[in-house]
Amino acid sequence: MLEFVMQSGGLPVGSYRAEFIGAEDYSENVEKYGPAVSLRWRVLEGEHANAEASRICSAKMTKHSALGKLAVSIKGGPIEMGERFSFASYVGVQGALLVEETNNGASRVGVFLRDAPAPQVQAQPQAVAQPQAVAQPQAVAQPSAETFA
Q1: 116-146 tens-digit pLDDT
Q2: Which of 13, 75, 76, 118 could lock onto 114 through a cystine, CB 3.0 to 4.6 A?
Q3: Integer Cα distance of 37 and 22 in angstroms
Q4: Pick from 113, 10, 33: which is nearest to 69 by CA?
Q5: Cβ count near 10 (within 10 Å)
Q6: Distance (Å, whole) CA 54 – CA 107
Q7: Rg, Å, the chain Cα set
Q8: What are phi and psi of 109, to 5 degrees?
Q9: Is 9:44 a contact under the CB 8 Å cutoff?
Q10: pTM score, two decimals?
Q11: In contact, 73 and 112? CB cutoff 8 Å
Q12: How far apart are CA 146 and CA 144, in angstroms?
């Protein structure tokens, strides 16, 4: 006999350390909502480590769309008008993931905050010790007997 447990359909609402793992076309309900994209993350630690969270967005990327806002947060900076953006270039980016509840009781990614990239430390050239000029003792005039006479 098969038994099942009713589940909410995603990660519990909360914040998680996560890694962006990719984007793919989402074809369910295309006739009703149009083309969409599924963005996916994997939880890195804690009770839900290795669980996945996702966000399904309209495939229209604008600065006000969910897809555009998440792309900016994954990139960690602005995307200029006309700039090409590939989610594949950002697979492996880590950060804080906020999972929120949807109207139907499931959950979805609401916000992703990318970790700040490690600062690029450039090696500073080491100063090479230059030989210092050594002061030569100056000849000191010795007083003569005539000086005291």
Answers
A1: 876 656 655 555 555 565 556 565 555 555 5
A2: 76
A3: 10
A4: 113
A5: 19
A6: 9
A7: 32
A8: -70, 125
A9: no
A10: 0.72
A11: yes
A12: 5
pLDDT at residue 5 greater than cutoff 80: no
Query: Collapsing DSSP states into helix, strand and coil, what is residue 66?
Result: helix
Residues 6+ apart with CB under 8 A from 108: 10, 53, 54, 55, 56, 99, 100, 102
The answer to whether 79 touches 89, Cβ cutoff 8 Å, is no
Which long-range contacts link 96-99 to residues 24+ away (Cβ below 8 Å)? Answer: 96/15, 96/16, 96/17, 96/18, 97/15, 97/16, 97/17, 97/18, 97/41, 97/43, 97/53, 98/14, 98/15, 99/10, 99/11, 99/12, 99/13, 99/14, 99/15, 99/16, 99/53
pLDDT, mean over the chain: 84
